[in-house]
Write a structure and sequence with these properties.
heterodimer, A: mainly alpha, 2 domains, two-stranded antiparallel ribbon, 4 strands, B: mainly alpha
């Protein structure tokens, strides 16, 4: 186990050298400034390593998600969610193994923007077809995203997000629908917003 | 995280804090860890996405969420993680994971043998069949399998690229994909993939002044590798700018084994990798190591051939730790441990490493433990 002498790193000559044990640092060419910047952003490795990070969703996983919630990935319309998805592997951070490049795990702004584009375009398909998805049925009963009064339904949004829809989720959803010019516009925005929020991180 | 710089500054000028006798948290980071709460529903979503590539079904979501108490939630969660790992979709995910770990796959030319795919397929087979992870370094056959997604079955296949087979170390796809001068790109792949660190691989306890701008820090004697003064055509002993030997002290003791594979990944009894010098002279052992110096995985760990390298790596405790490091980072959504610098302190995964070693180095079993660990289910 190596140590990082923080005192020398920071150039604090006024106080005596104090070694801080950092089990993650093994001296393998790590740039101390990069390590310091990382600790400032994420906390020390003993903390950061034990909490979940916000990793980008894999491109293939996103495709599975969209398809399982009602999106036609074979759609050919340029503005269809499936077409945007299938044409956006690079923007979504997909791998390029021929160049020895693995899929990116960090979520960039361009990728996040592309994801939101996809969810906005996917929302009408999801509203129409999510209830018929086998993944979104329980005991043969389909989950609806909205009831007949255009209110957001917990089971439908739970299935959309992959986790239980909380009262806060439903409040945001209902408020989004209420504030829109039309119910259909509001429902589309609500689905896109909650899908994007839930699936920004894998 | 804006408090971190202040924390570091303060820490630099104060004695190391001693944990109080009752074991209570000692700083803000311990407090933050202690503040996490178990959330099986959030954990289930992540586990489903990682292990199956899909969201949990509504039935799965509610089986955890609607469970009457914490113990029931945990039971339901653990049963679902087990089911995910037993599902065919898990195999698909392990193929994808292996491609990312190995940085290989998606054979671009259907007219050619699918060797870029068979290396990650072999890794996925080792994981999903719950074989020893060390087979990746020691298997003597079956390292070029095929996979039928419709039947979800692997079919063992030999690589037939000449020479003996030693896990992925002799894999033709790897040798083709990472072909380069003096085989150093292959050596770097081995180091970063299986040891989880970039070169330099070993750091001596005390640096040595070699009359350069910076000292030599390798464990091997400085003159144990080739330079123009001891018979080599490339001066790895140069101290003019950087100290080349800091990395090459390890690289040169390994690379000759990888120099026997040509651009297509086929074994040759001769060295068949390029030497980037005018006239393209042939590579010789004297370009790596001076006369009398033997190859080695690490200082004090001699090897003579690829099989002994595989055994030496398999016996290196850091190889097993690296496997768990990578698994942990994948599960927790971290960046790559080398490219992204997402270090995992040994203390974080000590229990997983011990269980991994005691259980026969089975990554599939390790995945279940990690995805059901306290850290994974807390947010």
């Amino acid at each position: 186990m190596k140590t990082i002498t923080i005192i020398s790193l920071l150039g604090l000559a006024a106080c005596a050298a104090t070694d801080i044990e950092d089990p993650a640092f093994e001296g393998h060419g790590a740039n101390p400034w990069t390590e310091l910047e990382r600790e400032q952003r994420e906390g020390p490795p003993r903390y950061a390593s034990r909490i979940h990070s916000c990793t980008k969703m894999r491109v293939a996983t996103l495709g599975n998600l969209l398809a399982s919630r009602g999106v036609d990935l074979a759609a050919q319309d340029d503005l269809a969610a499936g077409k945007i998805f299938s044409a956006s592997a690079v923007a979504l951070g997909g791998p390029k193994y021929v160049d020895r490049i693995r899929e990116t795990t960090e979520l960039g702004i361009a990728t996040a923007s592309k994801l939101f584009d996809i969810y906005v375009q996917a929302a009408p398909e999801m509203i129409a077809k999510l209830p018929t998805s086998p993944d979104c049925m329980k005991n043969g009963t389909p989950a609806q995203l909205f009831d007949n009064n255009n209110h957001c339904v917990a089971s439908g949004f739970s299935c959309l997000m992959g986790m239980p829809a909380s009262p806060e989720h439903l409040a945001i959803c209902n408020e989004t629908v209420k504030r829109a010019n039309t119910p259909d516009e509001g429902k589309r925005l609500a689905v896109a917003v909650l899908a994007a929020a839930a699936h920004t991180c894998e | 995280m804006k408090a971190a710089p202040l924390f570091l500054l303060v820490a630099a000028c104060m004695p190391d804090p001693q944990p109080p006798p009752n074991g209570t948290p000692t700083d803000e980071w311990d407090d933050k860890l202690a503040e996490r709460e178990v959330d099986y529903s959030s954990a289930l979503r992540i586990a489903a996405l990682r292990l199956t590539g899909e969201l949990p079904t509504l039935t799965d979501i509610e089986s955890v969420y609607l469970a009457p108490d914490e113990a029931s939630k945990r039971t339901a969660y653990m049963e679902l993680v087990r089911r995910y790992i037993d599902s065919p979709k898990y195999v698909r995910q392990m193929v994808a994971l292996a491609k990312d770990v190995l940085r290989m796959g998606d054979n671009p030319d259907p007219q050619r043998p699918p060797e870029l795919d068979s290396a990650p397929l072999f890794m996925a087979q080792v994981i999903t069949e719950n074989r020893s992870y060390l087979d990746l370094l020691t298997a003597t056959s079956g390292t070029c399998p095929t996979y039928d997604a419709t039947t979800n079955k692997f079919t063992a296949g030999d690589c037939n690229n000449g020479g003996t087979t030693t896990g992925l170390l002799t894999h033709p796809g790897m040798h083709e994909h990472f072909f380069g001068n003096l085989a150093f790109r292959r050596v770097r792949w081995v180091q970063e993939t299986f040891a989880c660190t970039a070169f330099p691989a070993e750091i001596a306890e005390a640096p040595i002044d070699v009359q350069g701008a910076t000292p030599y820090t390798g464990k091997f004697p400085f003159t144990s590798i080739a330079g123009t003064a001891n018979g080599g055509k490339v001066n790895f002993l140069s101290t003019d700018s950087v100290i080349c030997a800091n990395c090459h002290s390890n690289m040169n003791h390994i690379a000759p084994l990888f120099a026997h594979y040509d651009q297509g990944g086929t074994y040759s009894a001769n060295f068949v990798v390029p030497l980037p010098l005018p006239g393209e002279p042939a590579v010789a052992m004297s370009d790596y190591l001076p006369t009398g110096e033997g190859m080695a995985w690490r200082f004090g760990v001699p090897v003579t051939d690829m099989a002994s390298l595989g055994r030496a790596m398999a016996a290196d405790k850091y190889i097993a730790e690296c496997a768990i490091d990578r698994l942990w980072n994948w599960a927790m959504g971290k960046a790559d441990i080398v490219d992204g610098g997402a270090k995992v302190p040994t203390a974080t995964i000590e229990a997983e490493i011990i269980a991994f070693q005691a259980g026969g180095y089975k990554l599939r079993d390790a995945m279940y433990r990690v995805f059901t660990s306290d850290d994974f289910v807390k947010f």
